[in-house]
Amino acid sequence: MKFDDLEKLILEVMDGASCDIIKNRGNTAEGIFACGLAAKFIARYPSSEGGKIISITPDNIWNVVKRLKPTGTGGKFVNEEVFDFQYTKAAQDPEAQAAQAEKERKVQLAKSKRQSRQKELGMPVTEEIELSQVKDIVIAEVEIGEQAYGELIDPQLLWCFQDEYQQVADWCNKLEVTKFAWRLAQQQIENKIEILAKGVEWGSSVKTDVMVRVSEIKTGTQLDLPFDPNMEISLKTTSKQMGQKAGITFEAQEYIWGLLGIDISSLRKKWNKQIKSIASGYVFTSRDDCKADPGWEKLGPLAQNTFKYAAKQLKTKIKDPQFLDKLGDFVRIAAAGSNEKVQLVGLEGGYTNKMGAQFKKGLQKESLGVVLTLQAGGIPLIIVYSKEAGETPSSQSDDNVIIAIRSKRECQSRKGKYGFYPRTYVESGPYLKKLAGIRKGQSVEGDWQPPKERRRFSQKESLTITHGSHNILTEMIENLMSEE
Question: Quick one: 460 and 423 in the same domain?
Fold first, then answer.
């Protein structure tokens, strides 16, 4: 793995820093991801030099991170000289200059022929638009909480996040992201490209971790483009976790199972009776004291009540088409919320998916099974799997597992005190990726621009002049001339 200058810095500090202080790796990863997208949108040559999009490295991401300026709990990075950023045209020798002059002469000759032909056909005479003076503003706003922000900008902790830096760089260099960056670079207007990682402001009810918003600098309005210039991303630092609901209250359990249409209200009285014997609130002085309390061993049997009931309901409903449709919605909401535009991005494995109609259709075609198992400490785990793809799974990593719903007991800290804080996780299995069409996508190495394509048009075909340097009308004239 090559980190350039970043690698040298990591090697310098890794002996003297400990990763044990990192509280929430996912929050810090959101900041790295936002800065990675900013680095990708900056990494382009001016159109006068080909307009190519450049592959980025972890070093490019760190260059953005270290330029963040604190604004309360987060930072903002602004670069207004995108086309002049770091990439300049090399000086040419006399022979190369002569070749360039000849190339420009041929271009001018072709332009004159094209305009003459346009006049003969009674069409408007087109002029090329020079884009080299068009500059975009790229903004990365990172508001991820004080501790996560401190971890993000601390050079002493860089080595703790070297995997995340490499994973983000790899994802940003995928073909679909590179094409997105290229399309933005081709607009003949000055854009403000904002990459927002503001989990603290948006709150836990919003599944979007990172947003990309593009607007015209002059008017401040959203652009009317032949592609959607905005992104909404739900970021997962591991390939399994899609969603969770935390808390020891019965309402937390009602919420998670209610999404599947499973009514567990009849268990409320038993649940509330059991938690009376478990210490409530943040009453322990350390995490060790919390785990040593008798209540720690009671968390597994507590969760078993709702999991056993839910597993029984799942087994009776699993063949119902309406329930399978609800199951599809459950997985999508757990992963990316109710907004169908949100993309689910997994850094570990580098996948992207919107968990849409393809996944729900796949569920309807499968013969599904449900199994409940108990892990260490009596912690329950429900697995939904494909019977057609294999036998009853023994673990959630088996190839035919679609999703797993599991309980996890934790001791959470607040203001120096600790308390019981169980969680219910929804996690993806290997077979989910097949059903959902989850893709890793093609990667791009080096500079990139789309291959030139030639299309044939008839004189009667109505045309639309699109944004960017690709002029369909010019291409049509050239095709007509080549046919004579």
Answer: no
- Token pair belonging to 65: 């991170």
H or E, element range at 288: helix 287-292
Q: Alpha carbon 342 to chain centroid distance?
A: 9
Note whether 347 and 371 are within 8 A (CB): no
Query: Is a pLDDT exceeding 90 seen at residue 204?
Result: no
Phi-psi region of 192 (alpha: psi -120 to 50; beta: other; left: phi over 0): beta
Tell me: do 186 and 249 sit in the same domain: no
Pure H helices in 88-174: 94-120, 146-153, 162-172
Per-residue model confidence as pLDDT tens digits over 423-473 = 998 888 888 877 766 555 666 666 666 665 443 333 333 333 333 333 333
CA–CA distance, 366 with 79 (Å, rounded to integer): 50
| β-bridge partners, 418 | 284, 413
| Count of domains observed in the chain | 3
Non-local CB neighbours of 164 within 8 Å, separated by 6+ positions: 25, 28, 29, 32, 237, 347
Domain, as residue range, for 219: 5-88+130-236
Both tokens of residue 181? 């960056």
Residues 230, 247 within the same domain: no
> Cβ neighbours of residue 298 under 8 Å, at least 6 residues apart?
274, 277, 278
What is the rounded CA–CA span in Å between residue 402 and residue 399?
Answer: 9
Q: How far apart are CA 282 and CA 275, in angstroms?
A: 15
**CA 158 distance to own-chain centroid:** 21
CB 195 within 8 A of CB 37: yes
Q: Would you tell me how many other CB atoms lie within 10 Å of the CB of residue 28?
A: 27
Q: Count other Cβ atoms within 10 Å, centred on residue 165.
A: 26
Poorest-pLDDT segment among 90-94, 104-108, 300-304: 90-94
What is the pTM (predicted TM-score) of this model? Answer: 0.63
383 and 471 belong to one structural domain: no
Residue 60 in domain: yes
Residue 275 near residue 248 (C-beta atoms within 8 A): yes
Per the domain annotation, does 439 fall within a domain?
Answer: no
Closest alpha carbon to 37 in 105, 138, 110, 134: 138
Compute the average pLDDT of residues 210-238. 74
Q: Looking at the structure, do residues 223 and 274 belong to the same domain, yes or no?
A: no
Same domain, yes or no, for 387 and 425?
Answer: yes
Angle, nearest 10°, between helix axes 162-172 and 58-65?
Answer: 110
d(CA 345, CA 335): 10
- Which two structure tokens, joined as six digits, stand for 360? 């729900």
What is residue 45's DSSP assignment? Answer: -
pLDDT band at 85 (very low <50, low <70, confident <90, very high): very low
pLDDT (average), residues 129-144: 68
pLDDT at residue 242 is higher than 80: no
